[in-house]
Amino acid sequence: MRFANRLKALSGNVFVDMDQAKAEAISAGKTIIDLSLGSSDLQAPNVAIAAIEKSLHDPTTHGYLLYHGTLTFREAVAKWYTHRFDVEIDPQTEVLLLIGSQEGTGHLPLAILNPQEIALLLDPGYPSYAGGVYLAGGQIHTMPLLAENQFLPVLADIPTSVLAKARLMVLNYPHNPTTSMASLSFFEETVKFCQQHDLVLVHDFPYADIVFDEIKSPPSILQADPNKSSSIEFFTFSKSYNMGGFRIGFAVGNAELVTALRKIKAIIDFNQYRGVLDGAIAALEGSQETVKQTVAEFQKRRDVFIKALNNINWLVESPQATMYVWAKLPEPWQNKSTEFCRQLVLKTGVAVSPGAGFGKQGEGYVRFALVHNPDVLEVAVKQIAGFLGETL
Ligand SMILES: Cc1ncc(COP(=O)(O)O)c(C=O)c1O
Question: How far apart are CA 215 and CA 173, in angstroms?
Answer without folding.
Answer: 14
